[in-house]
## 1
Amino acid sequence: MARNLLWVVVLIVVVSCLVWTLEASEGDADPLYKSCVDQCQKTGCVGDTCFHQCKFFSADGKANDGPWYMQEPLYLRWKQWDCQSDCQYECMMTREEERKRDGEKPTKYFGNWPLKHVYGIQEPVSAAFAALDLAIQFHGWVSYFILVYYHLPLQPNRKTYYEYNGLLHIYAIIVMNALFWSGVCHSRDVDLTERLDYSSATVLAGYTLVLAVIRSFSIHDQSAKVMVTAPVLALVATHIIYLNFYNLDEGLHRKVIYGIGGVELIVWGLWAALTSHPSKWKLRAFFVSSILTMCLRMLDFPPYKGYVDAHALWRTAGIPLSYLWWSFIRDDAVFRTTVLLKKSK
């Protein structure tokens, strides 16, 4: 009875996450905002704040003629902060201060909530937690590597008994790559970093689905693995090609990621409910936590104090989830190695 009640509560939470979103108008269509940006690009100033970049770049973003020592500093060019982007940010924050004084709610600009920058980093909290999550993933991978190669018995050919070892090493590389580009995109969201972030996230989603199916159903036959991988690979490749060569559609990308993630959660959930694995409580905790984490990703609300939005909370929740995941993988490696050793005797 208690177990059934738990799953009902989880379902209610999921449904609540799907319906609890805030509607927001596009602030970049605000005439006052557009007028501010146009004026800033001409004068280089918003109120008392002026940008020296506007002396070296025209309104269309092209560099003006001038000696090399008068050009924009290299570190600013590397971040791609130019006159237009600085004007857009300052006008956005100025306009939001005006809206706050008038008792109006925050609004989105170019599809994103107005977040305060720190040393040129657009989403400092999300970027910091993406970096921390990457560190946790790296720690989990290293601890797993030490376990299987130095603490557990190896076969005569020096290979591990754990049959999913290769898949886990590939997973570690893919997830750390995705977190790296996510952190870069949170730091500076331009066309290139956005494409790399979306593409690496798609690869990660597809690979974790394949990993979930292979581990949950204990698939060892190579032809069966190909049958599982082929359709997922086709979907991932098609989506990445569409994003990079046809239309960088954020809405479509979210739907694809949510769809793949939903199927993956169903697979993990079925295994968690039916397995007799000695660490099944970790698997079930991972399943429930993954659902709650996905809910955070679906939420949408104005940033608290200008820094913490739903995406930042999602990044925060992913950190303990990563630790729990590698903890279960280490237990699974011990369990499968013990079983296979008994069979070999």
## 2
Amino acid sequence: MMARAPPRAYIVPDWHRCKDSKEYFNKIIHKKNRKNFGLLESPVMPPHAAVDTLDYKIFISGKSGVGKTALAARLAGLNIPSVHHETTGIQTTVVYWPVKLRENGRVLFFRLQLWDCGENALRRFDHLLPSCKEQVDAVLFLFSFTDRTSFQDLSNQITKWTESTDCLVKVVVGTKFDLFMHCDVAERDVRKFQETWRLPVLHSGGEVSDGLGDVAPILNCLAENLWHQDCVRAGATGRQQQHETRTLP
């Protein structure tokens, strides 16, 4: 099944580079490093700059070893594990990301709760996958540029999630993009995949910079698609309510 990307840009691209964003991004950065937020913590804005926070649950899907835990750490500004260890259960990571809407200049904080679960744990314990799927808003489908089988498995992963619900934001991320000497997935294969599934395919890899440039494309893509999904749902709800009002005796 094909998925459609948002027809237009809802958020200001690369807003983190603009002067008027500093007041907001300074709330998630401390001494050039990202602040770590627990489940009950959040950025604190002054009264004159108070913003709404939108909560979303994101599941990270992919074969063992593609870098799910590493990507979650990268997006949150945490230390990336240097050695791979299979995640034994469910691990959650909270990421705050401010965006500015193009239409009205409104600023929002996206609170993304990233869910990561080891592939072997999902197979051994039947209750884990339903917990991961419950009230999920988006799925990051991961493959490694150094593991062709993980790329070939993408269609199976996407189909499984689409069977349960089609009301999901779906974004594909290729990890270990910096290991080009060991690349096992060609650009033409990625382009063909995009043409077939019509999903955004982003990449991740390399050293983590002090700034936000290495994570901004993925977080902005998630925010863009999540906001679009909310607008579609709000429109559908409005149309349903109008229909119910018209049909009342």
